[in-house]
Amino acid sequence: MKKIFIVEDDEGIRELVEFLLTTQDYSVQAFPNARTFQKTVKEQVPDLFLLDIMLPDGNGLDLCKDLKESEETSHIPVVLMSAHANVDRLEGANDFIAKPFDVDELLLRIGKQFA
User: Fold this and answer.
1) In this chain, where does the modification 4-aspartylphosphate occur (predicted)?
2) In the chain, which residues have pLDDT < 70?
């Protein structure tokens, strides 16, 4: 079972994405902010990161950059999400999903990272 870490500050979106992914047989761990995510990622590593760009205590772009620069996580796919579709730098992310997103498109794009 593939494990996915989600970092999303909006509780409704976080719960929806977590539900959708668990129904697709992914193991999911969700975080409301960068701080709790950073504590956990030091102890365990998933198969994919799904990061919101705008967080209350950080920035998904910075998290992505750090993950891609770390030897332990550089090989793990990162998918960024944002309501601001004009993101001009993805900091090494493997994909970008604009919010609001289509549920089927979200699942398809995440699935492609494991193909």
Assistant:
1) 52
2) 85-89
